[in-house]
Amino acid sequence: MKGNVIVGQSGGPTAAINSSLAGVYRTAIDRGAKKVYGMLHGIEGLMEEQYIDLSKHITCDLDVELLKRTPAAYLGSCRYKLPDIHKDMSVYEKIFKILDKLNIEALIYIGGNDSMDTIKKLSDYAILTGSPIRFVGCPKTIDNDLALTDHTPGFGSAAKYIGTSVKEIIRDSQCLIYPKGLVSIVEIMGRNAGWLTGASALAKGEDCDGPDMIYLPEITFDIVKFRDKVKKLMETKSSVVVCVSEGIRTQDGKYVCELGNASDYVDAFGHKQMGGTASFLANYIAGEMKCKTRAIELSTLQRAGSHLASRVDILEAYQVGGAAVKAADEGDTGKMVVLVRHSDDPYQCGTEVKDVHKIANDEKIVPREWINKEGTYVTDEFITYVRPLIQGDVSPIMVDGIPRHLYHPKHKK
After folding, report:
1. How confident is the model at residue 272 (pLDDT cuts 50, 70, 90)?
2. Which of 273, 304, 335 is the last residue of a domain?
3. Is 383 a domain residue?
4. Phi and psi at residue 383, in whole multiples of 5°?
5. Which residues are identified as catalytic?
6. How many domains does the chain have?
7. What range does the domain containing 314 cover?
8. pLDDT, tens only, 382-404
């Protein structure tokens, strides 16, 4: 590389996104980049000329290892939607003026669907204006809903956390006996795709029956049938654990969380804030069955649990970061790195690059054949797909009994 590289992080953080950042930094330096800049709070921060020289913050191999084990977005994230190129070019003129001032040869953006929309628009503007800057997307999202890639870095660690947490919830729920039983509703992230919720089935094994029911947003949710199934289970069990996606909807398309006290907040991409599904269902079951209920939201814990990170996930996140720099260095632009699975057992996976125009603003949902006929559980095919992604552990670097993270004071917005 002859010029400089700039990298940003966007969207919801994960336990693996900083491993991708480490992969970008190390590979860019190894390929001769003079400087590697980091945007503070993604493209939104870049427009305010908020960036750092990463070499001043990542000074040794230990810093790289700490970064790989640090959850959330080291550089800070954003949810900023770039305008249509033909409606407002002033935003792009501002961004490219900053990039030219920094002598940027390649911009790498680590993120999910909305972030790939940013890469698409920036690369289109570069082509339109003849700019030589190359733009490559690096996949990231615990939701696992990016098109054309087998899976996304971040998903494996979140799935490992969910499977472990649900197993612990099941153990806890079996400890005490309540007069009319206990129903625990576990709410798991996933607006339109149920990959994370399906991962709760990983709790099932020789020493655990797993959750009793799993509800994904790909299947219409019938609250009356749900109540009847819970009643049937409670005839033979003193404790029932149900895992639901935050995005399950009723027949009329309404989110179940909207049946309760849902927030009206909508982000820049038009996404409604989720939350409250478990609370509503727990209150509903308590009223219908007069039993004790619990509403459990894993919330941000499922994407910040680096102490339960998957080794496969961390290694692949680092790999795709490096592959993004390699692709840009070799002339690719308007592309995203994808993971291509070659086999399940032994698990083997490699990288390719795909046109970001075929990825941005699309969503990969759980195939219908990977959900049982009743829509209340995932199939063995789902488990075969996800299990290799949670393998191995990454030991935190502990200081005084608590994991040490890499941190810089400028990351606060």
Report:
1. low
2. 304
3. no
4. -65, -40
5. 143
6. 2
7. 4-143+306-361+393-411
8. 999 999 999 999 999 999 999 99
